Amino acid sequence: MNPLVPRGRVPAVVLKNLLNLWPPYLAAGVHVDYIQRDYSRVHVSMALHWYNRNYVGTHFGGSLYAMTDPFYMLMLIQLLGPDTIVWDKAANIRFRRPGKGRVSALFQISPHEVAALQTELARTGRVDFEKTLRVLDADLMTVAEVDKVVYLKKKTR
């Protein structure tokens, strides 16, 4: 656990502010715009700067992935509570078009998805949460698609 991030339930505004000060995000130009109080939605964006451009002047692919990396894991930690182990398990990114200007990503986990995960955890003790999200440009065109797999396991006491 990162010593800068408090354990347990963290108010969304506190986590948002901590993430916006996190050195990897500062260096990449990633900005957490919004975390819904119940952690069901997160909006992240990244402007194009001289320090996050690739050789041809568009968004560096590593920064595009980095802006999507921890959010489903962080959301599920808060949504499922302290009795669930939550780990990022796998990811895949497909670049669809050059990222120019500001790009953004919206992460959403519905109450129905949370209930289904809780049911499966109660039944089997573990489950993989799989979700695909899109990184969009200002014209809402897809710049990249990211598949995320987050491993969930019920803690044993």
UniProtKB/TrEMBL annotation:
Cited SUPFAM superfamilies: Thioesterase/thiol ester dehydrase-isomerase
Taxonomic superkingdom: Bacteria
InterPro entries: DUF4442, HotDog_dom_sf
Pfam families associated with the record: DUF4442
Name the record gives this protein: Tetrameric acyl-CoA thioesterase
Species assigned in the record: bacterium (Candidatus Blackallbacteria) CG17_big_fil_post_rev_8_21_14_2_50_48_46
